[in-house]
Specification:
single chain, alpha/beta, Rossmann fold, Isoleucyl-tRNA Synthetase, Domain 1, 2 domains, six-stranded parallel β-sheet, 18 helices, elongated, disordered C terminus, binds ligand ME8, tRNAsynth_Ia_anticodon-bd, protein biosynthesis, ATP binding, metal-binding
Length: 579
């Protein structure tokens, strides 16, 4: 059936009831880094993202805003979700909306096939439904409400009351798949990652699955059940199918065979839908299950999952307007172990920006290129005889390429970045130890100076190629300054150290200009409405210098107060550092 030769990677399709926050952007960036990495390594790659537009949650939001759900979805996709992809420089190959015809028609086809195969029956259901999750909840999923919901049972994720529903619906025989799923998890131990998510799901399935209600009758914002148009398809059943309807299922067999199965990057909150319901649906339809489901951790605010419903959402452009999209991408990929939770803080972002991007990487690039310009009029010198230190740089260069690629194959993006940073540190140590500025003063050491700058330039080019999937804009600028041949995204990543230059460097503006953080600034707090994007943090006074040392890599940082995390400090870019 499917040849599975492609690297087909997906994000969840996001609900359009509201605008994106940095949690959604985090998933997008992670999937994008993986997609860019594989693409640049020469693997046939396809990256899908999109929006989830049906269901009660969207219907209620649209109604509350006095428009039809389709009008609402169109507005949000156009003004918020598509622009997000530009804000954080996402290289998706496709964008699916569940209101696309290619999706709606083929959801019906899929459902009809399951119905014809006997996997669907009519039944009664009574249970507690959380509209925020779009899911029936078990009593164990509920907690005691606080504040205005004191005395009521609320959803543990949304902290809002659940609704008691009693409906006559169509059911999917999911219980048939308890054992096949357990067999799948055992035969393919990396099917669900990371280990913590896998363990939770395996123990959940071991308790035995119940059948799943897959239609709703009390509202009509959804895809009609093909044999009974008084029902619409349950929003999760509809949404999960996006991964195959976008890949050609039902209308382009060749494309589908080439792409499917996919690697799904999702937040751990929805890993169960992807690792239980989704493979069960696929098995019932006789299709391959996904290659892998990776449930990443949550961005926390005040120790809780950052979320719009709790007003702790931070708009991605609050960060990118000041720090830029590269810094956004680098920060979230390096500061949080992919798979674990992490707390966002403005202080940590500023500190890492300054120490790692501006000083560690950007300054290294500027200095080396400036020296080639100054001492050799921009011509990259031919090296003389190599010494141990030069060999060592070359060895590190090769090793980190392999190590980073190996880490990416395990989706350990943070590990790939720490490997790459070994080369940044090695090159900085090399320049400090070799003191090319001192060599330049002694004509008899010209050959040594040539070797040192040649070695440093080679290392910088390798860094540019390796960092291109993470900080694409900065990498492309550096590439141009190094006289890199062709487009950097065409340079084979797994042999990055073979990169080619036309032999001449060009002046390089600072890749990461210095940014001043002003303590006590009163930046925007929670999310704004979709038609009124959050303003950029306002410049303010007095200035306090940004911390100069990196915060320890710590994905389990203690909770900050909500205010501290959601309020941006007042920050502004200052004139480029001339060093
Ligand atoms: O669940 N930290 O959509 P959704 C990290 N439509 N990631 C976060 C996050 C946080 N605090 N908050 C959200 C849905 N996310 C369904 C998906 S797929 C067939 C249907 C990210 O808009 C994370 O990826 O509620 C999470 O899984 C997703 O947004 C939920 O997005």
């Amino acid at each position: 059936m499917s040849d599975g030769s492609s690297f087909y990677i997906t994000t969840p399709i996001f609900y359009v009831n509201d605008v994106p926050h940095i949690g959604h952007a985090y998933t997008e960036v992670a999937a994008d880094v993986l997609a860019r990495w594989h693409r640049q390594a020469g693997d046939p790659t396809w990256f899908l993202t999109g929006t989830d537009e049906h269901g009660q949650k969207i219907l209620r939001t649209a109604t509350a805003n006095g428009v039809s759900p389709k009008e609402w979805a169109d507005r949000l996709v156009e003004t918020a979700w598509q622009p997000l992809l530009k804000t954080i420089n996402i290289s998706n190959d496709d964008f699916i909306r569940t209101t696309d015809e290619r999706h709606e028609v083929n959801v019906q086809l899929f459902l009809q096939r399951l119905f014809d195969a006997g996997y669907i029956y009519t039944g009664e259901y009574e249970g507690f439904y959380c509209v925020g999750c779009e899911e029936y909840k078990q009593p164990s999923d509920l907690v005691d409400g606080t504040g205005q919901y004191e005395g009521q049972q609320v959803c543990a994720i949304h902290s809002k009351p659940v609704e008691l529903l009693q409906e006559r619906n169509y059911f999917f025989r999911m219980s048939d798949f308890t054992q096949p799923l357990l067999d799948l998890y055992e035969a393919n131990p990396t099917f669900i990652q990371p280990e913590s998510v896998r363990n939770e799901i395996v123990s959940f399935v071991k308790q035995g699955l119940t059948d799943l209600s897959i239609s709703r009758q009390t509202f009509d914002w959804g895809i009609k059940v093909p044999w009974d148009d008084t029902h619409v398809v349950y929003v999760w059943f509809d949404a999960l199918l996006n991964y195959i309807t976008a890949a050609g299922y039902g209308y382009d067999d060749e494309k589908f065979e080439k792409l499917w199965p996919a690697t799904h990057i999702v937040g751990k909150d929805i890993a169960r839908f992807h690792a239980v319901i989704w493979p069960a649906m696929l098995m019932a339809a006789g299709l391959d299950v996904p290659k892998q489901v990776f449930g990443h951790g949550w961005l926390l605010v005040g120790g809780e999952k950052m979320s719009k419903s709790k007003l702790t959402g931070i708009a991605p452009n609050q960060i990118t307007d000041t720090f830029g999209s590269d810094a956004f991408r680098y920060y979230f990929m390096s500061a949080i172990n992919f798979g674990q939770d992490g707390s966002f803080s403005w202080e940590d972002l500023s500190a890492r920006y300054q120490a790692e991007l501006a000083n560690g990487f950007g300054n290294l690039a500027s200095r080396v290129i400036a020296m080639v310009n100054r001492y050799f009029d921009g011509e990259i010198p031919d090296p003389g005889i190599s010494e141990g230190a030069d060999e060592r740089v070359r060895t590190v260069e090769r090793r980190v390429v392999d190590d980073a690629d190996e880490a990416i194959s395990r989706l350990a993006i943070h590990e790939a970045l720490s490997s790459i940073w070994e080369l940044v540190d090695e090159l900085n140590g090399y320049i400090t130890a070799q003191e090319p500025w001192a060599l330049a003063k002694k004509p008899e050491l010209q050959d040594r100076l040539k070797t040192v700058l040649f070695t440093a330039i080679r290392g910088l080019g390798t860094l540019a190629v390796l960092l291109s999937p993470v900080v694409p804009d900065a990498a492309a600028k550096l590439w141009t300054a190094l006289g890199g041949v062709g487009d950097i995204t065409d340079v084979a990543l797994r042999t990055a150290y073979h990169w080619e230059t036309d032999g001449k460097v060009w002046p390089l503006e600072p890749l990461f200009p210095r940014i001043e953080t002003i303590e006590g600034g009163d930046g925007p707090g929670s999310q704004s409405a979709p038609d009124a994007p959050a303003p950029a943090p306002a410049p303010g006074t007095p200035a306090a210098s940004a911390p100069s040392t990196p915060a320890a890599a710590d994905s389990n940082r203690g909770p900050e107060s909500r205010d501290a995390a959601t309020k941006a400090p007042a920050v502004h870019a200052v004139a480029p550092d001339a060093s």
